[in-house]
Amino acid sequence: MIKITSRKEGFRRCGLAHPAEPKTYPDTRFTPEEMVMLRAEPMLEVEIIMEVESADDTGDDREVFEQQTAADLRKALDQLGVVYPKAASKKSLVDLIMENTSRAPEAE
């Protein structure tokens, strides 16, 4: 499950107006490319919620990307403008996505 909260009511991304209140979507709602855009968007807080057992956020996000094909991961990296080796393994592609879409923790 994916939970998205907008920092501004009605902020649009990926064809949706996101509310300021948390809204959940099924894991399959967004393409890998859209997930990259959503996670990289500073106006949105995106959380991956595991239904079976909880894990840290980084692990949950990683699992979502590991379920994608290498071709989809390459498309997502291309959209981010990230250069990667042509023969990169799927694990390397997931690592690159995680590195390029992670956000620094907000100051408390």
Key traits:
two-stranded antiparallel sheet; elongated; alpha+beta; 39% helix
Q: Biggest β-sheet: count, sense, barrel?
A: 3 strands, antiparallel
Beta-strand content estimate: 15-25%
Placed side by side, the strands forming the largest sheet appear as 4-1-5
> Kindly state the mean pLDDT as a whole number?
83
Shape: elongated
Order of helices and strands: EEEEHEHHH
Summarize this entry quickly.
With 108 residues, the protein is α+β, with helices and mostly antiparallel strands. The protein has helices at 32-40, 57-66, 70-80, 90-101, and strands at 2-6, 11-13, 16-18, 23-25, 44-48. The chain is 39% helix and 18% strand.
Helix and strand topology:
Elements: E1 2-6, E2 11-13, E3 16-18, E4 23-25, H1 32-40, E5 44-48, H2 57-66, H3 70-80, H4 90-101
Antiparallel strand pairs: 1-4, 1-5, 2-3
Helix pairs in contact: 1-3, 2-4, 3-4
Would you give an account of this structure?
The chain is of the alpha+beta class and 108 residues long. It has one domain (2-101). The chain contains 4 helices and 5 strands; from the N terminus they run ββββαβααα. The strands form 2 sheets. It has a 3-stranded antiparallel beta sheet.
